[in-house]
Fold these 2 entries.
Entry 1:
Amino acid sequence: MANVLVELSNAMVAATEKAGASTVLVNARRRMSASGVVYAADLVLTADHVVEQEEGITVTLSDGSMLGAKLAGRDPGSDLALLRLERPAGKPAEIAPEPKIGQLVLALGRPSTEGIEASLGVVSAVGGPVRTPRGMLDRYIRTDTTPYPGFSGGPLVDSEGRVAGLNTSGFGYGAALTIPAGLAWSVAAQLEKNGSVQRGYLGIRSQSVEISAAAQKALKREQAAGLVIIGVENESPAEAGGMMVGDILVGIEAHPIQDHDELFARLAGDAVGKSIAVEILRGGKQETLKVKVGVRP
Amino acid sequence: MNLTAMFENALDDLMKRIRGMLVVVNNEHQGAGAGVLAGDGLVLTNNHVAGDGHALEVTLDDGGPYKAKVIKRKVDADLALLQISDHGHAGAIFSTQEPRPGEMVFAYGHPWGQRNVLTGGVLSAVTTARTRRGELTILRSDVQLAPGNSGGPLLNAAGEVLGLNAMILGGDQSVAIPASVIREFLAEAHKNMPRSKAAEDVL
């Protein structure tokens, strides 16, 4: 290797060019253009908060061609919107595995027709779920890249030019967050199908508790924690299914539930409208209730 | 050798190569900025660092201070060329490559008066700034600049000068004047310069 700095620099340019080919300019509000990522040849994923109009949306691809676009769906909770191009002309992005803390990343954007823009950083944190001003984000990535104006909707890119997530400053907190690619792509698939994302709802308030050794014996498995029900909403799916304050929720559809993250995960996606098996501990005994999952208001 | 050690060695080499090109430019009224040696006793800096041109002094990494006078300015690009009496130092290499977004860059200067500080980042964008006299191509980077970086070089990974840092143009953004504009400015300066002493001797 001639000069490791030059090699690394060239590798970062190559990553920028590769992911830049799938990074587009999105014009869907009056003030400031934003960015987007090509999800499929005719679909562009962007940040929901940059789409302020449904008429006259345009998208400029990396080759400079400008296309009309229509809103195909939006999910304010995760700040994602899907746009359908007037014809399939985009180059879909390649997605990366979930990045690790400390990993080198580039934030890209195309806020103007002057070309791709980049900033460098590392992954500072990966976490979630986190409450957002308009809902819930199941998972997030935080980086120390510079969120330039117009970067919302643009990709966070790994050293190989693959998309690790979508950057947005739409959640406030005075900082930008990144929606992980795995989550963003699954939201995009639901937006493509339904135009919106439905999230499951039981109507309980709960908190994590330890499960005693005796109760674990009743469960016939080792499980250190569950969720004790501290409130049941009136006329909720949980009430209809017979869930009561004091029950300890320990499983859903044969998957152990130990904390809120696991519960959210089980209620996401296609759980809405289905009757699911909810495993509880009541008075130290294991019981299974049938609960029909509602839609989170 | 592992990659981190290779990286550190490469940074060491880079520092050795660029060390001599950076100077301190002192201006009686506005304090200190940075500058880059451009050969033949020429020093390139920002116009706002040169100020009104009175009582200018240039300190090299290994000598000085020297009295300096302004021989050319390009106000809209915030460039100034100074002349000092010491002709013995080689000039920096000004990159002829197209700047590429995503490439590694280093700012070399004296942020907050601290001498010879290297800060890193990437080239963010090649963009256009509007000035009173028209449009000017500028480089934006995510390198943190501070007062004292003005007039110092923005370097690529090979240690060539990609631009001259001039944070005054961009407000809170790190902005540099690209090497292409600098090379044009130097060429104009050379055209109007009296023939050097050495050349006269040959005649």
Entry 2:
Amino acid sequence: MRRANTLLIATGMMATILLTGSTVSYYEESLPSTMNPLYARSMVDYRSHELMFDRLFFRSPITNEVETRILDSYELLEDNRKLRVVVKEGIQWHDGEDLGPNDICFTVAAMLDPGTASPVVKPFREAIVSCEYNNRDRSAEITLSRSYHNPYDRLGFAVLPEHLFPSTAVSPDLDFSHRPIGTGPMRGSKGTRGVRFTAVPNGHHNARIEVMNLQPGGDSFVQIRTLMASGVQGVITVPPALRPEVQASDDVALKSYDLRSWWFIAVNTTRGPLQNKKIRQAIDLSVDRTELRKLTIGYDENDPNPPCEFISGPFVQSSPYYNRQVPPRDTADKARAEQLMTEAGAQKIAGSWVLDGDPITLRIGMNAPLDAEARDILNQFGNQMQGASFNQQVTRVSADDWATRAVTGSLTSEYDLLIGKWSFGLVEDVNSLFHTRSTDGKGGLNIFNYSNPEVDVILSRYESARTDTEAQDAYHDLHAKLAEELPYIFLWKLDTKSAWRNEVRGNTISPYYYFTNFDGWRHDG
Amino acid sequence: MLRRAFVVSLAAGLVGGAALSACSGETPETETQVGPSDSMVNPELLALSWPMVTADEAVLATYSGQPGWLSLVTSGKIRDAVEQLGPTGGLAAARAHAEAAAMYKQAAMLSATSAQATYEGSPRETDARGAVHLNMIGHALNGDVAGAKALAEAGVEDLSPEAQVFHEVWKTALMADPASTPTADALSAVVNLPAVTVGQWPELALEPHYTLAEQAEGSELSVTDPSALMALALWHDAAADIAAPESAAALDVFGARYRFLYEPVPTSDADLPMELVFGADMLTPADGPFLAALTGDAGISAVDAWKERSLLASLAHASRIDGALSVDVAQDAASEARADVLAGMSAAAGGNTLGHHRVFADIVMVGVLRAMALVAEAEGNHEAAGILLISAMERSSAEYTADPEALLFLSVWDARNRYPVRGTEILHNLIRRYPNLEAARFGLDALTLRESRARGSQNPGL
């Protein structure tokens, strides 16, 4: 039967049938924080936007070749400092308007406009100087700030429709952020309980799934049960503890998702007791990572490919930037922690640490969706702190607040510690996490506005490195410095696996962006 | 849990330690009829596959009686297998050494190919002049010996004395008439490997071998030369030949798909003995010569030439639509092969599905996917090959399906595409089991750094 389906598809006979009723539902980590790609922050955002928009250039998830869907041709000019592109004819926005070269230049102008206050655009501002278009021959010329080795990789932005924006200063609260119009394979509509993506046939897209329903995932156990019972067809993030069950199923397949994700506890170094490095170090020494991992993620010591691996700095262990001279700390060292607390001037009174007459109370927050991957990690970590004689208050931070307040440095007065994770693709640039915040966009993702001139110097060394070796050396030094200074307590890398029912076929998952090849997906249910 | 069930099952099937050699080169008969009528799986060929042959408990017992086989097939522990099968292990020991050779060949290819993709594929003005030596090795291992020779003839500048030691070995071989690649003995001497001994597992010193001065003041590249992994690969090849000298031709066929591309394609069309097929991702005795032909001069024509003898060739043939391999149908073929093996083994066990049946069936499915990827590549369909290789990888998380050589093969494939992310994770995980593979990090790290920096900055996602 399956073979018959395949044959029909190959001859093009199924496409119409599939488009008359094919609906796929899947669990995401949360709702997207925005539907405007200029303000994408979470991986849910990036994945969702990939369904709705076309990026000017992208990489094939299989062969890694540079590709574009919306350009007829492109050529580099003037020693690779200028790119001339010609936009394909017949591509329409989801509202029926034609895509033109003006839209490309509008997007560039929006990114360059200081009124567009988004950290997402910083890399593009660094790489692009201007854009001019000519509607007669459907061309646009993009001028780059210098000659790049891989210029197309600097131009992987999602193209926006000029006709829907009043100016190039794009703010996050425009109506577009709720009801976006793109040229991607699906049109998205965000509700309070989910996002409905509906296929939009176009000259350059032919989605074979008519409707994709994004549902924010809750309890991961329920997610997997629902998947097994065909209540949904996919789960984006399957926690390690539930993977064996999925693997044992003949109806569901685990899919790999190339993402370098690592977990951390950001430490508020700007106020309160954690300004003191010795107290930060004491907290780090009070964390029993082995126990925490066992209680929250589940861990098979015999797994040849362990999904979760401790880290001592801001990179996954497989990365060339990871400094292997800095060993990760697996277990707690309470004696040393107590010694450091005493050296910091703290006293233990009635089982709690007191500093300058006040009990130390740690206000601990966590990006709420992380609970699905590491069950109850917030409370378990809180318990470890309590066990180390720190009073603690724990709070879940909503995904929206995390995206709009935590990473923008707006929670410094409310929290001492924040549990989160970062996800990277091939590029592992961590400068925006640790650089002192500045008006030119540096330190744009610095959660507690950490500032250390020595760290800034190291980050500058990375940016100005003449060779790959120098860049690697700089990040090795950064790793060592951060492990000592502890603006973050580094926990572990946790790989990401999705699960999709076997009826969903052709589901190639792109590194980082996930749905880049969505036109190849289909539902044979 | 699954693995334990299999081990228990094998242990239960242990019947007096029958001599393994009883299986050599023979294809035990079976009357089991398997495969539903609409399956793509040819039931006659399926009956010749190692899972169906070992559905006979007496045959299985010849393997289960040896811990080395358990290590190799159920745990994927090649080193343990080499040491357990030992100097008197005959063809079984040769198989273990051949698997080790395949792993190190792919690791050497990974490092060299990545380095070449970096320093030749996207050179920078500040690159070390001595990196040409690494490009030279990349050319040679990928089959372009003439290109390697041209680089050697042109000369390599700025090599430190330590680097010069490695380069001289290569230069001597390449400048010979005819040009060749370094011998096992020459390479072993450079990295201080012991004399070849069956059952031994030599270790490399893992410190970088030398530094290369980059063309930016004060910047030096620490290099682990890919020749070290090449030396290990050739060492294990030699050990395999010593363990089973009468089977040298079969061993060449066994390793053909993971060979260095400068190595000649074996032309033997003889069936492989069961010791070289059991637990492998080749299913029937003729799959070995089929894959050798497919990855050699015959190319895609091997499918038609072998479809009556080789199960993998027959599945490739059945996976065609309009004369070309269909990824979807190939994936269906893999699923059907798994299902038919499971059904067949269960039938042979009186309708009971035992733990090891699923293990064997999973190995079969992954094996079919890997073979179909080679078919797609032979057809020139690079993207289909990638989809199938990734699909195989996604089903290779268990110890018994996570063949290091196959995972490294995908990493090499990715490196040729200048995509290092998957490879770094694969290699990192494999290093836990095989510390010598640390030597492959150098090249892959170089490519990762180069590609990462060339992409510019990108914000991480929450």
